[in-house]
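Quick question, first post here. What does this chain look like in 3D?
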Amino acid sequence: MKEVLCAGYAALDLISYEERLTHRAGGTAANVAANLAFLGWKARLAGVLGADAAGRAIVRDLEESEVNVDDVELRSGGTPLVVHEIRANGHRFYFHCPECGRRFPKYRPLDEPTARSLAERLEPDLFFFDRASKATAILAEELRKKGTIVMFEPSTNGREFERCFEAADIFKYSSERASAIAELRSQTKPKLEIVTDGKRGVRATFANESILLPAFQVEVVDAAGAGDWTTAGLVWRLLDHDPEAWSETTVRTALRDAQALAAINCVYPGARAAAEHLTKAEMLAVARKLIADQSPVFTHAQPPRRTRSRATGCSSCLADA
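> Answer (accepted):
Ran it through. Tokens below.
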């Protein structure tokens, strides 16, 4: 069984859909860990959250998704939250509570001693991270020495961006960030570079070969989380092969599978909602039909299952009274 260590952004998603507010663990690093666990990997998340109701809700949700959270530290201070509002014409994100109005806490990186300890005692097949920091740079460099494949998907620049970039085997980003990333990156070329472009599809560069794949056409309920499913599906398929044996065909096939999983999730409300509506076998069966250019029938997009607040204060963001 393959193993992944994820580090970076984890937050509590407040999913607003059809006048219902639901709490789910979210954030790129947490989503990728949970998606890979759904696909059958041993997944571990490392990070810092608040010792509060939101932090505990994230941990519970990830544990239910079979993600190892032994290296998620709950400290004094707040947990990041995101309001994920799903509308008929798309989705929007907010970083303040719709009920009590408070601004949500920001992301806190791992510290360097923790990173060194993780790098010393773990040897995962994949290290995935989405935030550049001294800690993630240490993890990327040290784990790569052990033969771990390193994937970097920056959502912000970070002070250690170039160091993290140079340690990455796989580098993925959205077309919206292309100009900013071009100014930061070194001349080093990663083994595989991927640029996602929403409805226009995916571009990739591998061994000086360019790959362009159009997006699948589905009836989109919510596009949030599509990038995280693309990431999980890609590495899930790629690491079935020895990295030294990767080819243009291998990469193209893995990307197409990943795009299909991402498209399926877009039919449901929530960044990881496909895993609530479908089993792994069902999701892969639908993906095969999409790839074969058939028209799969999706189960009805139900609202996310209702969650009960355990907070004594705000029922939306779980802040204490």
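The chain is about 35% helix and 25% strand.
The chain has a mean pLDDT of 92.
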